């Protein structure tokens, strides 16, 4: 099942990219593995998928070392995609390869401190509350520039892009304007020299129900769980 699901999703990613004259190779699939048993993640690795997303530090601190011990590949990558508290920054800095949910200077500085102790460089995204929903994490779009300026001096935490979780709609077309707003915000920040210093600018947006529209609007990273692993 997992192999078939991965193949189907990757085919859809390819089709969506080609539809707007983009290279499918420019889009990374993060398989969301929160609450997914280790054996299913190991199956995905056996089928050739190596990038995963976790939401909870406590779950990840048992799961990630186990996966790495059972799979000696050096290209397995774990992204943190959940709400991260500053008091768990040390463990997150140790465990993860990418943090997608930076939403404050306090959190970024906590990560920077721990990364310096680990002598480790970590890529990260600012999480933007593009829909300005009270119940969701992330900075407001209008605060993005100031936060990027505050974090521009960090040596170990490198902000390489933006991430969002837009409002939910049954019709993916209704989500399109939010994806477009995030892309336009990234372009504005890049023009100001606040993104793109470390690598090409990444946009993490799109999940199981709307990732094709996200790709059409410029996503470079899509986060897909249910369509790969099934219901949790």
Binned, the helix content reads 40-55%
How many domains, in number, for the residues? 1
Mean pLDDT: 95
Largest sheet, in brief, is: 8 strands, parallel
The number of helical runs is: 9
- Report the uncertain regions: none
Strand order of the largest sheet: 7-6-5-4-3-2-1-8
Total number of β-strand segments?
A: 8
Q: Any idea of the CATH topology? A: TIM Barrel
Strand content: 15-25%
CATH architecture: Alpha-Beta Barrel
Radius of gyration: 17 Å
Give the helices and strands as they follow along the chain.
HEHEHEHEHEHEHEHEH
Compact summary:
This protein has one domain: Alanine racemase (TIM Barrel). It contains 9 helices and 8 strands.
Textual characterization of the structure:
The chain has one domain: TIM Barrel (Alpha-Beta Barrel), CATH 3.20.20. 41% of the residues lie in helices and 16% in strands. The chain contains nine helices and eight strands. An eight-stranded parallel beta sheet has the order 7-6-5-4-3-2-1-8. The longest helix is centred in the first third of the chain and has 18 residues. It is globular. The model has no long low-confidence stretch (mean pLDDT 95).
Task: Please specify the SSE layout and strand pairing.
Elements: H1 2-19, E1 28-32, H2 38-46, E2 51-54, H3 57-70, E3 77-80, H4 89-95, E4 98-102, H5 105-118, E5 122-127, H6 144-151, E6 157-163, H7 176-191, E7 202-204, H8 211-216, E8 221-224, H9 226-229
Parallel strand pairs: 1-2, 1-8, 2-3, 3-4, 4-5, 5-6, 6-7
